[in-house]
Amino acid sequence: MVRLKTRYILFEILYPCDTVEAKQSNELRSLNTGILLRHHRISPSQISAKTISQELRRSLQINFGDYGLGKAGSLLQIKYFSNRTSTGIIRCHREDTDLVLMALCLTNKIGEVGSLILNAVKVSGTIKKVEQYAIRRSQRFLAAIQRNDKDFLDDFARINTSEDGQDE
């Protein structure tokens, strides 16, 4: 019997700054962390693993037709999603990873919540490695926010890289 080969995609939901929010967050602009905190927010309760899965399948249908939906949708599953951190993990077939990544990037609305960005952060063959990467990434993210010094933008650029300077 042949084993199904899967890939796990770590993604995050980013909320670009609206003009109304920009006026409300003038106090955050004085901080170096303002840009980062405006894009990384807690997701509303309307966004769940089920709604993300529905919108991802809808995006596959719209952008790649019945073939894309049938091919990539068969093994597509949201393994984890946290509203608190706006991050999640998607499982898909190894051959369909590119289709799912494109559909993820082309999605800009989930349910009633619009103007958002689904950012694919990492792709891995095991869910354990994706989870470990997500933990290390959030620790670096929190450390960069708590430091809030002049080197913050340099730290922000290194959030997605490993300690030795190479992307993981």
What does this structure look like?
With 168 residues, the protein is α+β, with helices and mostly antiparallel strands. It has a domain at 6-16 and 38-125: Alpha-Beta Plaits. 46% of the residues lie in helices and 18% in strands. Strands 2-3-1-4 form a 4-stranded antiparallel sheet, sandwiched between helices. Strand 2 (77-82) and strand 3 (87-93) form a beta hairpin. The longest helix is centred in the middle third of the chain and has 25 residues, at 49-73. The relative contact order is 0.20.
Briefly characterize the structure.
Component of ribonuclease P, a protein complex that generates mature tRNA molecules by cleaving their 5'-ends. Also a component of RNase MRP, which cleaves pre-rRNA sequences. Keywords: Hydrolase, Nucleus, tRNA processing. Helices cover 46% and strands 18% of the residues.
